[in-house]
Hints:
Elements (H helix, E strand, L loop, with lengths): L6 H10 L12 E2 L2 H11 L6 E5 L5 H7 L4 E6 L5 H7 L6 E5 L7 H9 L10 E6 L5 H10 L4 E9 H7 L10 H9 E9 L4 E2 L6 E8 L10 H11 L7 H6 L7 H10 L13 H15 L2
Parallel strand pairs: 2-3, 2-5, 3-4, 5-6
Antiparallel strand pairs: 1-8, 6-9, 7-9
Helix pairs in contact: 2-3, 6-8, 9-12, 11-12
Amino acid sequence: MLEVTSPAGIRDILNRYQLACRKSFGQNFLIDRNIAGKIVAAAELQPDDLAAEIGPGLGALTTRSAGSAGKVLAVELDRGLLPALAEVLAGLDNVVVIQGDALEIDFDRLAQEHTGGVYGRDARQYKLLANLPYYITTPLLLRLLHEHYNISLMVVMVQLEVAARLTAAPGTKDYGALSVAVQYFTDAKLLFRVPKTVFFPVPAVDSAVVRLVLRQKPAVPVKDEKTFFQVVRAAFGKRRKTLLNSLAGSDMAIAKDLWKDVLHNCGIDPARRGETLSLAEFARLSDSLLEVRNG
Length: 295
């Protein structure tokens, strides 16, 4: 098995396969086996688990996952890495590498196809691990959550400032629409910081590992999930403005006087700012909007 947990080992693989780290794919390869081990431990993988991995790169995390999970499905976008990854993973019969875009793949269908229907939609839940490229972190996380895939938990390594946003509390500078979405669907916990020096090439910033345990039911009940998230996005659209002005100035095309009635009915001060609202208050706000609209 090739050495993928040292700069020298990575350079050797890249040279032999005439590869280069692609900035367009956000490629920074993990080279610390201790960090990889901690990520796998956080996922609590068992011999009968299916693990989906996004962005295996050169397999540092994949090889560790394969030693704990029953099966690993690794989704890699970069076709150029596949020959090297195949050599790294040679002999690991429980790993399947799929070339594809995680922003487009149906993970439930993938799980079903590779387990004979044992895992996936309306079947057993599976786990997801990822060292997420910074440039797709937000759209990918939102897609994984809003598609309601049958995932029990996700352990993801993300840029440190993104990790802070995922776990931020109302009223803090990091709290935003992403915080609300993640905390609505999951119980989010920042596990540990990861220094930039454990990647090759070395990125500009540190990272962190976050565990997201999918909730059986959302954190707060809402009458209409689509409306709830429309209101959340509108409230955070103009952070320096009051909640009323942010809502009225959004693309929801609702008159300011109507928003005044909505806020009055749910007991929320229109002079507050969106980032001060809790999930429960956003739920009240979106439910009140539906009530006022429906007269």
